[in-house]
Automatic annotation (TrEMBL):
This is (2Fe-2S)-binding protein. It comes from Sorangium cellulosum (Polyangium cellulosum). InterPro entries: Cholesterol_7-desaturase, Rieske_2Fe-2S, Rieske_2Fe-2S_sf. Keywords: 2Fe-2S, Iron, Iron-sulfur, Metal-binding, Oxidoreductase. Residues 27-129 form the Rieske domain. GO terms for molecular function: 2 iron, 2 sulfur cluster binding; metal ion binding; oxidoreductase activity. Pfam families: Rieske (PF00355).
């Protein structure tokens, strides 16, 4: 399911004067791994700026600021040469650290001829970048499983007109699950707010839920309904204020060795999880694309949501880095 909202107005700010610093520190998905082909360059708007993605000589993803320090040409229209990015305009070449290593017309390279290299990694079928020089916390995960132990599907859900922290509120807004989605759910039996994440568990007869918020843009959930396990992950990346690129992952446990019958059963279960995920996203999007978010009058049932809103307000901020 793909949501592409055309009404891209700035929605979902916790503060009235957040325009210049609307981004949070963290890991952000920029592309599907399948989009990033060897020898090709992909451009992506990010944090109000722009980055390029490509694979180095070893096949690992590289994410760097996109504009050449010479005259500002967009490196996404350049080439990958020997695992390095080359500007199309004057053939300046930059290595994976961001340092300019070749200027065809010059013997001496100016020390300021650099672009910024973001920490990057691949996980869950996505290429991620961290908004800083060094990651302060681990990549997002799903509770109670390792990526290698799951069969999963990953997709882009398009661009939505709100900040990435806003839909993550739904992970702790249990009232909205009952009201908007008609999902009966009890209160958490455990909730922990940490420096860079929030985790909770819900236990009912024949039901278990284990939710995890990583940073301020990613929510993952483990579900167990009478022994039937499933996993989901949602994450959003701010392209600029008021525009977020959304990705989702649905997963089930991997059976190894896997028979054809087991494979087909897993595919059917993924279809069912995907259909539920699509319905929930569409129902949420109807509200979130028209919201003028403000923290108004809260009630006792909002106590878990209030914890998340404070966590987001206090979370470290980030901005686009052009060069170092």
């Amino acid at each position: 399911m793909t949501i592409v909202s055309t009404n891209l107005k700035k929605r979902g700010r916790l503060h009235e004067h957040e325009e210049e610093q609307a981004y949070h520190l963290g890991w952000y998905p920029l592309a599907l791994c399948s989009e990033l082909k060897s020898g090709e360059v992909l451009g992506r708007d990010f944090l109000g700026g722009r980055v390029v993605l490509y694979r180095d000589a070893a096949g690992k993803p590289v994410v760097q600021s996109a504009f050449c320090p010479h005259l500002g040409a967009d490196l996404s229209v350049g080439d990958v040469v020997d695992g390095q990015i080359r500007c199309a305009f004057h053939h300046w070449c930059f290595d994976t650290s961001g340092k300019c290593v070749q200027i065809p017309t010059e013997g001496k390279i100016p020390p300021g001829a650099r672009i910024f290299t973001y920490p990057s990694a691949e996980a869950w079928g996505l290429v991620w970048a961290f908004t800083g020089e060094k990651p302060l916390f681990d990549l997002p995960r799903v509770p109670r499983a390792e990526e290698s132990g799951l069969v999963y599907r990953t997709q882009s859900n398009g661009i939505v007109p709100y900040e990435p922290w806003l839909p993550v509120t739904n992970g702790l807004d249990f009232q909205h699950l009952r009201a908007l989605h008609n999902i009966p759910i009890v209160e958490p039996d455990m909730i922990q707010v940490r420096e860079y994440g929030i985790e909770y568990t819900i236990t009912e007869p024949n039901k278990q839920r284990h939710g995890l918020i990583t940073g301020a843009n990613t929510f993952s959930l483990y579900r167990n309904d009478a022994g039937r396990e499933s996993f989901t992950l949602f994450s959003g990346t701010p392209l600029r204020p008021g525009e977020t690129l959304v990705f989702s992952v649905v997963a089930v446990r991997k059976e190894d060795p896997q028979s054809e019958e087991e494979r087909l059963a897993a595919e059917r279960q993924l279809d069912a999880i995907g259909a539920l995920t699509a319905r929930l996203l569409e129902e949420d999007d109807r509200v979130l694309t028209t919201i003028r978010f403000r923290q108004g009058v809260l009630v006792a049932a909002d106590r878990h949501l209030a914890k998340y809103l404070k966590y987001v307000r206090d979370f470290p901020r980030a901005s686009f880095i052009e060069a170092r």
